[in-house]
Specification:
about 60 residues; mainly alpha; 4 helices
Amino acid sequence: MRWLVLTLLFLSAWTTFDVSEATARTTLTRTEIRAMPIHQRPNRAGHFYGNTVRRRASHGG
């Protein structure tokens, strides 16, 4: 039973992580990011205005 629970936990964690999205965020250059509309840019640490705009746009508020 413990083996089954651990297997299901591992599979659920493994399937929810999107490697391509994480890789795409690290390969964008500053010029490419600035060329995107602000609501489509990836969230970045310290960019409070842009992160807030994207959060409000995605939540419809």
